[in-house]
């Protein structure tokens, strides 16, 4: 062991010893003070009567007076007018005059109807789509999906309006 190492150890021991001696002296003085009655002033302060006064909460303020309700005086309304009913007028009796037609002659024979124009063929209705797409070439199935054996069918149903545009109603069915 070298000299500086011994010196550090001895310094460490003296520090510990000084700290221990200080704690022992402090406790000895404290015990002496309590035994001889030096702390009686503290005990008297602690034993003094404590006056407690209960402070009650102030009563809540009275509620505000209810608002005054003014009665609305209804003004007399005019009676509803009666619906106008026109008086019933009896028509004068019909009198036959001498100028009246006495006999009726038959209508002249009708002319035959003209021949109708040749019928024009109506345009064809909307084209119906096939129910499945098996006639279309299918794209190559991803290799990862084949390895994981992922498969299924998707059915899409949608409406096309008269203008040939998508009308907004669609339904999707997934299986697999």
From TrEMBL:
* Top-level taxonomic group: Bacteria
TonB C-terminal domain span: 126-176
TM region positions: 20-43
For this entry, list what GO says about its biological process: protein transport; siderophore transport; transmembrane transport
* Main location, first listed in the record: membrane
Key words, A-Z: Cell inner membrane, Cell membrane, Membrane, Protein transport, Signal-anchor, Transmembrane, Transmembrane helix, Transport
Query: What subcellular compartments does it reside in?
Result: Cell inner membrane
Q: How does it sit in the membrane?
A: Single-pass membrane protein
Biased composition, class Pro residues, residue ranges = 57-67
Is Cytoplasm one of the keywords UniProt gives this record?
Answer: no
The record ties this protein, via InterPro entries, to: TonB, TonB_C
Q: Which GO terms describe its cellular component?
A: outer membrane-bounded periplasmic space; plasma membrane
Q: Which GO terms describe its molecular function?
A: energy transducer activity
Q: Does the keyword Secreted apply?
A: no
Q: Describe the function of this protein.
A: Interacts with outer membrane receptor proteins that carry out high-affinity binding and energy dependent uptake into the periplasmic space of specific substrates. It could act to transduce energy from the cytoplasmic membrane to specific energy-requiring processes in the outer membrane, resulting in the release into the periplasm of ligands bound by these outer membrane proteins.
Q: Which family would the database say this protein is a member of?
A: Belongs to the TonB family.
What protein name applies here?
Protein TonB
Source organism of this protein record: Chromobacterium sinusclupearum
């Amino acid at each position: 062991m070298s000299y500086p190492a011994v010196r550090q150890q001895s310094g460490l021991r003296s520090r510990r010893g000084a700290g221990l001696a200080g704690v022992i002296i402090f406790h000895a003085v404290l015990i002496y003070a309590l035994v001889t009655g030096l702390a009686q002033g503290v005990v008297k302060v602690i034993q003094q009567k404590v006056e407690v006064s209960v402070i009650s909460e102030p009563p809540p303020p009275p509620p505000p007076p209810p608002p005054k309700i003014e009665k609305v005086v209804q003004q007399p309304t005019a009676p509803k007018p009666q619906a106008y009913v026109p008086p019933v007028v009896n028509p004068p009796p019909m009198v036959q005059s001498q100028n009246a037609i006495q006999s009726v002659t038959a209508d002249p024979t009708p002319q035959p109807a003209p021949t109708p124009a040749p019928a024009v063929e109506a345009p064809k209705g909307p084209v119906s789509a096939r129910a499945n797409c098996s006639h279309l070439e299918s794209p190559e199935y991803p290799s990862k999906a084949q390895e994981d054996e992922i498969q299924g069918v998707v059915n899409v149903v949608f409406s096309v309006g008269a203008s040939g545009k998508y009308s907004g109603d669609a339904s999707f069915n997934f299986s697999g």
